[in-house]
Description:
Elements: E1 11-12, E2 37-39, E3 43-44, E4 65-67, E5 93-97, E6 109-110, E7 124-128, E8 136-138, E9 152-156, E10 184-185, E11 210-211
Parallel strand pairs: 1-3, 2-4, 5-7, 6-8, 7-9, 10-11
Amino acid sequence: EISASEPGYEIKAPKSMQAFFSDYPRYRSLIASRIHFLDVSHLDVSRTDTFTDCFKGFGAGTDSKIIGLENWDVGNGIDFRDFFCGAFPFNDTVSLDLSSWKFTVNRSIFTYSFFKDFAPAASTVELHLNWDTSSFAQMSRMFHNFAVQAKDVSVTGIENWNVEHAKCFDYMFKNFAPNSSCKLDLTGWSKGCSLIGTHRKFADGNFFRIKEPVWENH
């Protein structure tokens, strides 16, 4: 647990938080493999630019939980690849509200596989992602194999994303929550702009549950 610092002290994260809380085999440590609960409310990440694999594979138990993420200032972040890839592998329920996150505009931000293989055993998954994504550049596999067993899935905010500068959407929603009735209307992505990024197998396996935007390069 990372909890409140002593008076007069601050807990500042390093410039790179790659695999900081990861339980992925490549990075696994004795501590990470036993973590069930994290309070990161007082971890100052305002100077961090690399979050690659930060919580990859995180979650040692069926009740694993992270609190305080909503307080993070990720405005200096550039690389979020595999941030939650394979996270919460044993949870039955996962709920995250990251709508307060503000990404810096006018810089290229990479979110490749951000939620890939997320919560694979969960029955209920809820995400709130009201983000300004106008600087997102690489979004491939972002929700690939997301919540594959869940029946109750809700992802809000995503329908309003501004992705006109993104260059790659390949496999972004492939096999997205295949056992749920969750529907996403992404037609707003292309209103007033042209989406020119590649989009191979963008929503394969969704059986019309995802309304795709209009692509410029068919």
